[in-house]
Every structure is written in structure tokens, then in C-alpha cells.
């Protein structure tokens, strides 16, 4: 954020990306068209890109959890599978909320501040900083769900452990082959020296 500038007796915040010496304050009584567009776009995005998808996901996960809860499990293994499935459903919904709620909340607060409280520069700067930081969580969402599904699968966990064990055995085998090769080389070198000494003794 740039230094606040006066316009019509009111201090207004100016974007930090404006070049120094080219500040163009906007009057409070005639707000910039850009802020108006951002204000409308924010609520369109908030509704279509967050509230609607989150509501659909919540309803689907709720119905899925209800279906899982009605499954009769008499064995200990079946009960464990049911509990694990319910836990994964809850975690998926929690990941969605944690990743996208901060982004939409901070963006909404920022556009409201710019439109109705343009003189709150310090607060706006903090909100914009939080908004850009929240993009990290939003972008990380594409990694959290696959990791949850992958590492939550017993077959995948077994395959990873098997691969690691196999890699360890291959590494140990390779080290053994290197050591064996070194011993063979040393033995061959010793045999060559011994043959040379024997030949020298015979010639004497």
C-alpha cells in the first residue's frame, strides 16, 4: 500500500503498485469503477466458486456418511473399515473448508474495506497480506486430497513398504557385490604377486 493521500478532505488508500510520483487519489463520493467491479466479482465468485461447491460437497459427504452409518458390521475388521471411511469423509470436507475459506473470507473483507472504509489503510494492508498468504492453502488443496486417498489405502501403504524393503535389499545386495568384487580383485592381485615371486625364486 502506498502512503494515504487526501481527496476531498478524506484520507484514501492507494494501491502499492502505482509508481512513485503518479498517485491518483479517488474521491470518496465517486469511487473508482475498478473497486465497483471487484466488489461485484467477489460476491459472484464467493457464491459460484465457494458456497455452491462447498454446499454440494457437504450434502454429498453427509449422505455418504449416512449410508456408511447404516451398514451393519458384526466383525471387528468391518467396524474398523467403517470407522476409517467415515473419518476419511470428514477429513475431505475439512480439507476443502480449511483450504478455501480463508481465501474467500479475506477477499470479501478486502473489497468491503476498499468500498466502505477506504481510509483504513493499515487494516487493508493486513487483510491483503492475509489474502495473498491464503493462496498457498488454496493451491495446496490439489495435493492434500490425493495424499489422503493414497496413504489411506492399505494396498498403497503395503506397496510402499514393500518397495522400500526391496530397495533396501537391492542396495545391500549391490554393496555386497561391490565388496565381493573388491575381494576378488585383491585376491587376483595377491595371486599375481605370488606367481611373480615364485618365478623369481625358480630362476635363482
Helical stretch tally: 4
What's the mean pLDDT score? 74
- Please count the beta strands (DSSP E, at least 2 residues each): 2
Percent of residues in β-strands: under 5%
Which structural category fits the helices and strands? mainly alpha
Q: Unreliable runs, pLDDT <50, ≥5 residues?
A: 1-10, 15-30
What distinguishing features does this structure have?
204 residues, mainly alpha, Rhopdopsin 7-helix transmembrane proteins, two-stranded antiparallel sheet, 2 strands, 3% strand, disordered N terminus
Quick summary:
It comes from Aldrovandia affinis. The chain is mainly α.
Question: How would you describe this protein?
Answer:
There is one protein chain. This protein has 204 residues and is an all-alpha fold. The protein folds into 2 domains: 5-152, Rhopdopsin 7-helix transmembrane proteins (Up-down Bundle), CATH 1.20.1070; 156-204. It is built from 4 helices and 2 strands; from the N terminus they run E-E-H-H-H-H. A two-stranded antiparallel sheet has the order 1-2. Helix 1 (33-69) runs antiparallel to helix 2. The longest helix is centred in the C-terminal third of the chain and has 50 residues, at 154-203. Mean pLDDT is 74; it is low at 1-10 and 15-30.
Amino acid at each position: 500500500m502506498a502512503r494515504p493521500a487526501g481527496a476531498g478532505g478524506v484520507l484514501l488508500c492507494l494501491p502499492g503498485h502505482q509508481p512513485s510520483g503518479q498517485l491518483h487519489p479517488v474521491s470518496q463520493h465517486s469511487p473508482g469503477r475498478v473497486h465497483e467491479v471487484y466488489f461485484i466479482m467477489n460476491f459472484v465468485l464467493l457464491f459460484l466458486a465457494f458456497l455452491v461447491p462447498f454446499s454440494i460437497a457437504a450434502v454429498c459427504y453427509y449422505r455418504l456418511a449416512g449410508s456408511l452409518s447404516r451398514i451393519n458390521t458384526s466383525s471387528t475388521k468391518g467396524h474398523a473399515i467403517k470407522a476409517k471411511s467415515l473419518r476419511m469423509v470428514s477429513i475431505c470436507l475439512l480439507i476443502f473448508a480449511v483450504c478455501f475459506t480463508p481465501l474467500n473470507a479475506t477477499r470479501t473483507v478486502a473489497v468491503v474495506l476498499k468500498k466502505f472504509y477506504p481510509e483504513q489503510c493499515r487494516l487493508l494492508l493486513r487483510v491483503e497480506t492475509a489474502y495473498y498468504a491464503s493462496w498457498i492453502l488454496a493451491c495446496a488443496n490439489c495435493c492434500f486430497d490425493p495424499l489422503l486417498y493414497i496413504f489411506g489405502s492399505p494396498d498403497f501403504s503395503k506397496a510402499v513398504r514393500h518397495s522400500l524393503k526391496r530397495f533396501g535389499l537391492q542396495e545391500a545386495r549391490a554393496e555386497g557385490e561391490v565388496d565381493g568384487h573388491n575381494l576378488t580383485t585383491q585376491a587376483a592381485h595377491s595371486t599375481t604377486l605370488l606367481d611373480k615371486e615364485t618365478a623369481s625364486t625358480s630362476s635363482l
